[in-house]
């Protein structure tokens, strides 16, 4: 098991390195001159030269990449002498716009993204899996048809539409919720909840739809399995048959998808955060892209990729916990 | 004394008639073979007796020990299931839940009908596994289905079916998924346990050899009906119906020279 875990972590690190290299290459062959971007509007040719030297832009790209990767693990120093700037571990460079270290930006934005992702996940799991289970157990009923119709609606409606409609109805027309803003959970729990509720609903509408359909399909498949028939043949109450024998195999593929979805959202819900104006990692990415703030784009990409890659490792481990055939090795 | 009495059973799925006016009865402690080619309604009949048919239209009567099952409410039939009538299925791997140890699955069957502590149930599980010939029963009870061989899995299924000492066991193709040497072992085990517990067996199979070796009586089914019935040796010696004759002719025999081509049905 430990060997397996180490192998998976090694593979994860390799994937991240490849992603890092790809993103790095794309941005440094882009037509924008990073030194020009970093310099800002009031800029002189001397200043650009200075920045180029400081960022090491006149060294070959592989060398720049090596410095970047080294910076992530050990920190790095930009420039020399009196103009030297220290960038501590894990260094992802400085924002061209604000001159703040990218890693600090990410850390400051993570709580908002995490609040949105985790809250929405709880909501869509409850609603989506719950609706899917009921639909599967009452296959063909009016509930099944209504729930699956609603699920299709949830999947089809783009988030920027649901988000705006929600905001218009709940904030402007009925005035039951405030405009969302970044509130710390610990500082003001009620304010946090009120601010997060709309982003949660908007995101959960999409994911709940997908999870409801997935759960329904999986559960219907499991219910036709022979071992479910055996459970019924034992004379177990139907409730026990479903809960004990059918739900567990149904949950395995859902856990897989859930791990990846949650991982992806922790790396920033770009549209949701942008529409609600919440300063999460996704909003950071959107702003960085608008202003060609390359170090930030690169940092956010790596950060988001890391969440997805590690979510995958966690999912693989959970799989082993859930399914004894994987844990014990099929004979 | 009649334990199971099926009268004019009809089962259809939409327009398709799977069982079309089938009647037979089974005495306590006896073995009745229900034979026929695949699709003749054997398995549907067994599921109808167990009350496990979903989405089918059923009519007729199924009497079990003086109680009519088709008209009874679902809960009453569920209470009988596993307790007084148990079932062994064809494919023991897919019939056992891959997510739970076999001991748990047997104990679950027991505890569905008897109030016992986990400890007592575990003792019964170990005794049953030992009884069906699984070595190191105590340790093996904690293993999962995929850790057993095909024959061992079917032994687990038998232990599960017999743990409550039911009056009737329905064995639906119990040896079809197993290789020939294991088939013989499983049939011998079933026969020993049947005699020991005095259980009646409804043996469903397309394998005439299995029926000849185990059953007291035979019902030959074709197209959802019984075409012939009788005491097993009499029927095999002197089949009356053309279908039975052709069914028997379609099986190669060890006591006669093998023809170039077997008869087709």
From TrEMBL, chain A:
Keyword vocabulary terms for this entry: Cell membrane, Membrane, Transmembrane, Transmembrane helix, Transport
Main location: membrane
PROSITE patterns to which the protein is assigned, alphabetical: ABC_TM1 (PS50928)
GO biological process: transmembrane transport
GO cellular component, one term: plasma membrane
Domain of life: Bacteria
Keyword Chloroplast in record: no
Entry keyword annotation includes Lipid metabolism: no
Location of this chain's protein in the cell: Cell membrane
Domain ABC transmembrane type-1: 110-319
Entry-linked Pfam families: BPD_transp_1, BPD_transp_1_N
Topology in the lipid bilayer: Multi-pass membrane protein
InterPro entries: BPD_transp_1_N, MetI-like, MetI-like_sf
Transmembrane annotation, as ranges: 9-30, 114-137, 149-170, 190-210, 253-276, 296-322
Family the UniProt entry places it in: Belongs to the binding-protein-dependent transport system permease family.
UniProt-recorded name of the protein: Peptide/nickel transport system permease protein
Native organism: Nonomuraea dietziae
TrEMBL record, chain B:
UniProt keyword tRNA processing present: no
Any single GO BP term: peptide transport
Top-level lineage group: Bacteria
Membrane topology: Peripheral membrane protein
SUPFAM superfamilies for the chain: P-loop containing nucleoside triphosphate hydrolases (SSF52540)
Keyword Translocase: no
Gene3D superfamilies xref list: P-loop containing nucleotide triphosphate hydrolases
Molecular-function GO terms, alphabetical: ATP binding; ATP hydrolysis activity
Gene Ontology cellular-component terms listed: plasma membrane
Localization annotation: Cell membrane
Residue ranges annotated for the ABC transporter domain, each copy included: 4-248
Keywords for this protein: ATP-binding, Cell membrane, Membrane, Nucleotide-binding, Transport
InterPro entries tied to this protein: AAA+_ATPase, ABC_Ni/Peptide_Import, ABC_transporter-like_ATP-bd, ABC_transporter-like_CS, Oligopep_ABC_C, P-loop_NTPase
Family note: Belongs to the ABC transporter superfamily.
Protein name as catalogued: ABC-type dipeptide/oligopeptide/nickel transport system ATPase component
Originating species: Nonomuraea dietziae
């Amino acid at each position: 098991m430990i060997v397996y875990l180490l192998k998976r972590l090694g593979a994860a690190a390799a994937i991240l390195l490849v992603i890092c290299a790809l993103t790095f290459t794309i941005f440094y062959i882009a037509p924008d001159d990073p030194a020009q971007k970093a310099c800002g509007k009031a800029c002189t040719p001397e200043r650009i030269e200075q920045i180029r030297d400081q960022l090491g832009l006149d060294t070959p790209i592989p060398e720049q990449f090596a410095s970047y990767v080294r910076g992530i693990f050990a920190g790095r120093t930009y420039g020399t002498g009196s103009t030297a700037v220290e960038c501590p571990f894990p260094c992802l460079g400085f924002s061209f716009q604000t001159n703040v270290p990218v890693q600090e930006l990410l850390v400051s934005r993570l709580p908002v993204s995490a609040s949105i992702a985790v809250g929405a996940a709880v909501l869509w799991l409850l609603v989506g899996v719950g609706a899917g289970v009921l639909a599967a157990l009452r296959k063909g009923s009016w509930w099944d048809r209504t729930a699956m119709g609603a699920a299709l609606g949830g999947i089809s409606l783009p988030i920027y539409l649901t988000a705006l409609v929600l905001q218009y109805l709940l904030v402007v027309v009925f005035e039951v919720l405030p405009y969302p803003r970044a509130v710390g959970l610990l500082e003001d729990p009620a304010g946090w909840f009120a601010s997060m509720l709309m982003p949660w609903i908007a995101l959960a509408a999409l994911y709940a739809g997908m999870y409801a359909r997935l759960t329904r399909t999986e559960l219907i498949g499991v219910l036709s399995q022979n071992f479910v028939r055996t459970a019924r043949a034992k004379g177990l109450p139907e409730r026990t048959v479903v809960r004990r024998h059918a739900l567990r195999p149904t949950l395995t593929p859902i856990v897989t998808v859930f791990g990846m979805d949650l991982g992806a959202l922790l790396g920033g819900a770009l549209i949701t955060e942008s529409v609600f104006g919440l300063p999460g990692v996704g909003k950071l990415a959107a702003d960085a892209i608008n202003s060609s703030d390359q170090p930030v784009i690169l940092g956010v990409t790596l950060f988001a990729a890391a969440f997805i890659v590690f979510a995958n490792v966690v999912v693989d481990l959970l799989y082993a916990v859930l399914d004894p055939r994987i844990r014990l090795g099929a004979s | 004394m009649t334990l199971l009495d099926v009268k004019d059973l009809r089962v259809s799925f939409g327009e398709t008639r799977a069982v079309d006016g089938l009647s037979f009865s089974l005495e306590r402690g006896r073995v009745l073979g229900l034979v026929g080619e695949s699709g003749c309604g054997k398995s549907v009949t067994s599921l109808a007796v167990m009350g496990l048919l979903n989405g089918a239209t059923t009519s007729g009567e199924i009497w079990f020990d003086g109680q009519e099952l088709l008209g009874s409410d679902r809960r009453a039939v569920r209470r009988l299931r596993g307790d007084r009538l148990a079932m062994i299925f064809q494919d023991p791997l897919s019939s056992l839940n891959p997510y739970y140890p076999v001991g748990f699955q047997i104990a679950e069957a027991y505890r569905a009908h008897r109030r016992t502590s986990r400890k007592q149930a575990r003792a019964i599980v170990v005794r049953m596994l030992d009884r069906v010939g699984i070595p190191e029963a105590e340790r093996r009870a904690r293993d999962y289905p995929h850790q057993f061989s095909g024959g061992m899995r079917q032994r687990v299924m038998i232990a599960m079916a017999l743990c409550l000492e039911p009056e009737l066991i329905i064995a639906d193709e119990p040896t079809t998924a197993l290789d020939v040497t294991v088939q013989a072992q499983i049939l011998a085990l079933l026969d020993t346990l049947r005699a020991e517990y005095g259980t009646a067996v409804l043996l469903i199979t397309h394998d005439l050899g299995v029926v000849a070796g185990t059953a007291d009586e035979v019902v030959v089914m074709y197209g959802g009906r019984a075409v012939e019935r009788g005491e097993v040796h009499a029927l095999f010696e002197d089949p009356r119906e053309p279908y039975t004759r052709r069914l028997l002719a379609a099986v190669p025999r060890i006591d006669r020279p093998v023809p170039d081509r077997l008869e087709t049905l």
